[in-house]
Amino acid sequence: MSDQGKSHGRHVDEFSGVETTGHEWDGIRELDNPLPRWWQWIFWACVIWSIGYWVVYPAWPLVSTHTKGMFGYSSRGDVAKAIETANAGMAGQLERIRKAPLEQIRTEASLREFALAGGRSAFAVNCTQCHGSGAQGFKGFPNLNDDEWIWGGTVDAIAYTITHGVRNTEDEQARASDMPAFGRDQILTKAQISDVAEYVMALSGSGPGGQPAVRGQAIFAENCAACHGPAGEGSAEFGAPALNNTIWLYGGDKATLVETITNSRRGVMPAWGRHLDAATVKQLAIYVHSLGGGK
Amino acid sequence: MQNMGSMMDSAIDAPDIRDYDVEPVNRKETRPPLYAPRKRIHPRRAYGFFRTFKWWVMAVTLGIYYITPWLRWDRGPGAPDQAVLVDIPGRRFYFFFIEIWPQEFYYIAGLLIMAGLGLFLVTSVVGRAWCGYTCPQTVWTDLFIWVERFVEGDRSARIRLDKEPMSASKAMKRMTKYVAWLAIAMGTGGAWVFYFADAPTLLHDLATLQAPTVAYATVGVLTFTTFTLGGFMREQVCTYMCPWPRIQAAMMDEESLTVTYRADRGEPRRPFEKNADWTRRGDCIDCKACVVVCPQGIDIRDGQQLECITCALCIDACDDVMSKIGRPRGLIDYDSVANDQRRREGKETRLRLLRPRTLFYFALWSLIGLGMLYVLLTRADLDINVIHDRNPLYTTLSDGALRNGYTFKILNKAREQRTLTLHAVGLPGARLKVVGSEDMGDSPDPYFTVKPDRLQSFRLLVTVPPGTLKSDAADLRFVLREINTGQTAAYNSLFRGPGR
Predict the structure, then answer these.
(1) Same domain, B445 and B464
(2) Domains along chain A?
(3) Helix, strand or coil, per DSSP, at residue B52
(4) Domain boundary among B344, B370, B402
(5) In chain A, which residues have their Cβ closer than 8 Å to the Cβ of B28?
(6) Distance separating alpha carbons of residues B492 and B388, to the nearest angstrom
(7) Are residues B218 and B234 in the same domain?
(8) Does residue B186 form part of some domain?
(9) Which chain A residues are closer than 8 Å to B399 by Cβ?
């Protein structure tokens, strides 16, 4: 059996008669059985296939670029082509939206459906960061689902607000209101501010009323009614919110109201007309108007 | 090499030590290779009842397969007129008068369950009838063997041809056979794709090289598999690849009919003798007619075995021989293990088709079938799905009223436009507004239209007056009604508020 140990210089396993790989680990050797034929065929077929693949498709990374392949294929090019096709498909409708007045887009079914879909996408990209994915708003960022509008809830008013924004420095036509900081600028005393806050709470039905509110009513008539209206009904013309309902931009509790009256509030919004094209702004206006509060 | 043992057991000098007579079956010299090449089977043609029956089954099953896509069924304008069509881009499955949407895939699941249970039922009654008669592998292999026999002759001619050195006539025969096989294989793959597109249009496109790549790829793959599985792999598919032979034993019992050799009658087998005394010997004359016709390459006289697909050709072959030697037919026949036992015990044999097992399978199969039939017959062509907005859950309006938003989807399975109204039940004073409908107003019953054969989505706003909602949520039921016919569909949802 010793003569079976070697064959052509390689070690042959004595029990199986199969050559080993030549490595030995603590007396354990690995048999060098041939690979199954079908497996080997597939392996070589894959190798040959991959050579063809290198030639026609982008394959090898180079220092600052990569081999481009004969087909000139790129997945980024696919995306660009898909976007181009989509844009070409939408071009006709977008042109119609650009030309049509907002009221026509709102009432004509085919335009409206297109504008709602486009507006929803544009809202998700540009507006949700402040107004929330459901347009539900946050403290300082208005809820666009309800029916209170600081700057007006008609589709045209909404379009104007989107185009020019609010209190920004990039657009001279931006919406702007300028409520005095009654406390900081020492127009009213702390006690007076407290009384006005009591009165505002009573207006919206959330405060107890009583003596402070009665005192506050007089101060309100003198300092606030010019913009917010004698009964606190608000005015879109001045950008003065209604105070006689339960909708609050910053909060309707006493502390928040005192803070608002003392220091005023100056929320801002970009002038989207400078960042988006006219058709997108129109679609956004239609979408926001459709959320439920549109007038 | 070491000698591992002597030829005979023998005592050697030392006490209690014996030399054993044993052969190391897996010794290097005698061990068979791990890979055993297939031995080719040349089944001889059988004649008889089962062979004729199998020709008919082949004609009917292949006929159904090839002809079905060409049947037409008028569904009116704008709808495909193919009787059976799986319209993947259009997301519809058409089956004669039935039209199924993807939402109703449970019909297909039900059909598959019925097919499974049907297979169990058939197997428990008559064994592997599926394998022997209707399995595509069996049918196509049978067809391929028929072609082979037509071109190269029957068994002995084929064996002779195999051994012949290559010649012009042998090459011609082989080529003819392969071309015929390839034509059948391509026809098989070709017929498959017609189920997924309008058959006449696709045939034209395939012929003029305008068909989609996936059609050619599918035809190619099925041509390849049919050609190899039917032409070369044949019985190996049943023996090595198919799981069914392993599973079927669980469905069969001792009363199940299966192709059986009656050993009690056949044994002891002995070659045919003229004027033999049949009482002193078995009926089997060991002519191996049963083996020579077997496409699986087994001997049925060895008893039931995994390889047997119960094609029953051995019954035909044996019956033929029995008739010729004047012995009763049925030495190999459909019979059960229980009957074999009964005969041995001298009892009357009997056929027990109605057993708890078969009745159970049949009851289950019928139950699912009836359930499917009921669902199919009462299937509504109008449906509604309502999804409550998640963000925001509710909106408080300036007058204190509450509003909830919903997305509702209407499935109009009819092929006509419909005018519908929506009504909300559960909250008095609720007003509905459908965003994007013709009726843009706020009303208790908004109306709108949906297009034919379409799923349409709408956004719905429901507003209730202040104080209507007593807790943070209330049940709200949406009822959709078609104005002309009064047909309704309903969905139970919720209305949410801030709570108190």
Answers:
(1) yes
(2) 2-55 (no CATH), 176-268 (1.10.760.10)
(3) helix
(4) B344
(5) 15-17
(6) 11
(7) yes
(8) yes
(9) 245
In a domain, B468, yes or no: yes
Q: Answer yes or no: do B391 and A113 touch at CB < 8 A.
A: no
Q: Is A109 within 8 Å of B438 when comparing Cβ atoms?
A: yes
d(CA B384, CA B422): 10
Residues A111-131, mean pLDDT to the nearest whole number: 94
Nearest CB partner across the interface for A242, out of B390, B398, B433: B398
Answer yes or no: do B400 and B486 share one domain: yes
Per-residue H/E/C for A70-102 = CCCCCHHHHHHHHHHHHHHHHHHHHHHHHHCCH
The residue from B231, B247, B263 where one domain ends is: B247
A145–B436 C-beta distance less than 8 A: no
Q: How many domains does chain B have?
A: 3
List the structure tokens of B185. 């294989």
B391, A134: Cβ pair inside 8 Å? yes
User: What is the per-residue pLDDT across A19-63, written as a single tens digit (0 to 9) for each?
Assistant: 888 888 898 888 888 888 889 999 999 999 999 999 999 989 999
pLDDT digits (tens, 9 = 90+) for B351-381: 888 999 999 999 999 999 999 999 888 888 8
Contact B435 A116 (CB under 8 A): yes
Cβ atoms within 10 A of the Cβ of B416, count? 12
Q: Does any CB of chain A come closer than 8 Å to the CB of residue B461?
A: yes
Q: How far away is chain B from the Cα of A131, in angstroms, using its nearest Cα?
A: 11
CATH number of residue B467's parent domain: 2.60.40.10
**Helix (H, G, I), strand (E, B), or coil: what is residue B348?**
coil
Q: Tokens 């459709």 appear where?
A: A290
Chain B, nearest residue to A295 by Cα:
B441
* CA contacts within 13 A on the Cβ side of B147: 22
d(CA B415, CA A257): 59
pTM: 0.71
Cβ-Cβ contacts under 8 Å for A243 (sequence gap 6 or more): A200, A203, A204, A228, A232, A234
Give the type of residue at B91: R
Indicate whether B91 and B185 sit together in one domain: yes
Q: What is the DSSP letter of B39?
A: P
B391, B395, B396 ranked by CB distance to A133: nearest: B391
- Structural domain including B71 reads 49-104+135-247
Q: For residue B402, give the nearest of A123, A147, A268, A111 by alpha carbon.
A: A147
Do residues B59 and B162 share a domain?
Answer: yes
Mutate to test the interface with B, among A2, A114, A291, A295 (most CBs of B within 10 A): A291
- Determine the distance in angstroms separating the CA of B396 from the nearest CA of chain A, rounded to an integer: 7
Altogether, the residues listed in chain B come to a count of 500
Domain contains B120: no
Give the pair of three-digit tokens for residue A236: 């879109």
Identify any residues that bridge with B403 across adjacent strands, giving them in sequence order.
Answer: B395, B463
**B273 and B315 share a domain?**
yes
Measure CB to CB from residue B2 to each of A1, A242, A246 and give the nearest one.
Answer: A1
- Span B456-470, pLDDT tens digits: 888 889 999 988 888
Checking phi first, is residue B23 left (phi over 0); if not, alpha (psi -120 to 50) or beta? beta
pLDDT at position B385 over 70:
yes
CA distance A193 to A261: 7
Q: Are residues B235 and B258 in the same domain?
A: no
Please enumerate in sequence order all residues whose Cβ is within 8 A of that of A88, keeping only pairs 6 or more positions apart, or say none.
none
Kindly state whether residue B415 falls inside one of the protein's structural domains: yes
Q: Report the gap between the CA of B393 and the closest CA in chain A (Å).
A: 9
Q: Is B491 left (phi over 0), alpha (psi -120 to 50) or beta?
A: beta
pLDDT digit string (tens) for B30-61?
A: 777 766 778 888 999 999 999 999 999 999 99
Collect all residues of chain A within an 8 Å Cβ-Cβ radius of residue B1. 1
Q: Write the Ramachandran bin of B276: left for phi over 0, alpha for psi from -120 to 50, otherwise beta.
A: beta
Q: Which positions in chain B touch A108 (Cβ < 8 Å)?
A: none
Residues B242 and B272 occupy one common structural domain: no
